[in-house]
Amino acid sequence: MERIHQLLSTGMKPILLTFLLLTLASQGAVRAADTLEYNRRATATAQIMAGITPAVGDPAIDKLIKLEGFAEHQKWMAGQWAQVRGRMQTIETWRQQEVKIPGSNKKNLLYPFSGPDFLNAYVLYPDHAKYVFFSLERPGTLPDLESVTPAQFTRLLQDVRGAFREIFERNYFITSYMGKQLTTPWVRGTVPVMATMMALMNMRIVRIEPVDLFPELTRQYENPQGDRPALPLRGVRIEFANGNGALQQLSYFSLDATDRALRYYPDFIKWVGQPRPASALIKSASYLLHDNQFSQTRAMVLESADMLIQDDTGIPYRFISTPPWQAKLYGKYQKPIKPMEWGYQKDLDSAFKTKAVTPNLPFPFGYHWKGGQSGLIYAYKERNAN
Predict the structure, then answer these.
(1) Degrees (nearest 5) of the Cα angle 155, 120, 324?
(2) Measured between alpha carbons, how far is residue 358 from residues 7, 84, 344 in Å?
(3) What are phi and psi of 295, to 5 degrees?
(4) Which of 50, 75, 135, 364 has its CA at a distance of 20 to 30 angstroms from the CA of residue 286?
(5) Is residue 381 within 8 Å of residue 301, measured between CB atoms?
(6) Cα-to-chain-centroid distance, residue 33
């Protein structure tokens, strides 16, 4: 507390003060739970990418935080995060008022077509034991900061800012952009982005390890002459400690989830859907689950989950508006953006219009992110109605 009063007395700009306090809180959390073994290099790397000054003591890291490129990056991240944190607090308040999930600390959160969107998953479902994501983007790895030159480090931080620009502004990633943003020489895959988000939320990384659910299939598909998927399954697991020191786990898988491609991994959807009941999140999903090419994924979510938060790009309204499902609507329904007009749902449009009162949605959610035009569907199975 004395340190906070000292900072206040300097007349420091509010944004930088807020970010410095976040850094102090992060370091304080490390000291408060220093009996927990965690990966200090991975945590420090994530903090650097988040613009947070990590604890001193690692020569490879200490020299980087003195560079001008880091000061510039820290300033940008501080300004952006101050706004995003305000949005997250709004989502947290909405969730506390509207969403009740008994036994959440024992449940899985399923997030199909997630990309690296750990921010929304965690703010909407902060207490779940495990998070299971899957999408097309490859997992990748954290950058090796020990070997970078000052010029390379500056470029790395520029790539981080490029990867975060849309999620910070719009609250979703643009799929077509991610192909470039997550395949630069320094930011490769979803792991760097998810780890950076964890650092911004005052978390520490315990371990990052590859996951091979089906090693026999992996070996079989290594044969270039055989029948194999165009996008082989790749997985990673991140174990992390939240701000309170509790351990949680994120599993991320990269694969083509169309029914046709899932024939190469016939047990993947079954694995994802266990244990039950799970919670689910779907947003900015390009209306993929409206297409029968993804019928297995749609059926898995409907069978495995007992509650779901989504926008109109998720599971079609007709599947979650009849027993055993009930649905609550928030915000507004807008026709799909181009070129996805085919995702228009007449029944969902009518449901929004016929409601006497549709509660406001005080945060951007989905493609209609500007000007309070977002809509959200909170669906739950009747036995869990609250």
Answers:
(1) 150
(2) 44, 25, 19
(3) -65, -30
(4) 50
(5) no
(6) 25
